[in-house]
Amino acid sequence: MRIVILTLLVCLFSANVFSATVKSVTCHQCWPWSGKVDIGYVLESSANDPVFEVKFYGKAGEGESFLLSDLKGDGSAGIVLGSGSKRAVWDPSGTYPGTQLSDFKIALAAEEVTSQAKYIVLDLNAYTFSYASSTNAATVSVGSDSKKSQIWFRRIEPGTYQMSAGDDWSYFDPSWTSKGTETSHDVQLTRGFYIGIFEVTEAQFSKIDSETASESCAPKLRIRYDQIRGSEIGATWPYKTDRRVDSDSFLGTLRSKTGGGVIIDLPTEGQWELACRSRGDGTFIGAGCWNDGSPYDSADGQTDNNLDKLAWYKMNSSNRAHEVGTKRPSLMGLYDMHGNAWEWCIDFFDYRYGLSNAQLSRTTIDPVGFFPTVSSAKNSRRCGAYGNLPVDCRTSRRTSPGNGTTYADYGFRLALIQP
Predict the structure, then answer these.
(1) What is the CATH number of domain 119-417?
(2) Single pTM value for the model
């Protein structure tokens, strides 16, 4: 097998290709010698957590320029989150198998699209990202592509809110035995992020995990935390906060398909709850309300008239999960954050979030949870499922899996995280 040998020139071959957001482009063949090309570049922005659309172009000699494929790393799937130094690797053997090239030129185009990217869309056929300023009716229609061959992520702006706000459990059951799992404290997230508008469906999961096959738009259930992130490297969060996962885990497979340049992961508890409480105008829903802003409305603690419009829960679900996105969304356009499936978060569970009294009395900045010292520690899950009563479907509700659980109603929702 012949290795592709390139004579590389980094240059601008179209006045419309280069952008002022791109600086310090470098390009060289990787060492040890592999034939692959290392592309380094810097993206600049005044925004705290910008989004860029990035394209790589190649041109051999005086030929026509074309979009490069066979890329891994930052920008390889079309979108870059965050500014600063970036790196991508191009494998020309995929484009030019067994060929020797000279006078090959590479250029980058980058445009900041932060204000336009209220949504980022992952195409599960091409494993590329695009952006959109809004959704439309087709996004949430029955059996739509956004539940099967795409994953839609909603941008959530940073902010400060009260986590586990108040003793809202007492509205439904003043004697509730799990009240100690919710310790109110102020949390500030300094950076925006994106979160899936739906729980991951069976159809989406089967697109990514080729060992399964399904067209169902119900949430993927019976899934363990270690299946999502892995039981070795993926279990070290937040001891190692670089969000690495096991290569053979679900996320490891998904990241390999997208080129690994965008961090796809579970949300932290802080991110999950901020997304659930956000009104989209810099304010947040407090205690006593569902995430569409409607108040609790239950006369018996069993049925809640407003929750009935938002969630599949014990009193309306017929004891089964339902297609995602068939109930009313939150104020941020997120579906099923109450009920349908318990949702995994990346944090390990602790009644006090691993915080001391002194830490609970002041605002926690960008919390990542705590790293457990015992092997029996479990990860957090959020906000009830199809078999739960309203008290278990509140925004503050959090718990960890019990011993011997079958994970029958455990699902998950993905997030895109700034590096």
Answers:
(1) 3.90.1580.10
(2) 0.94
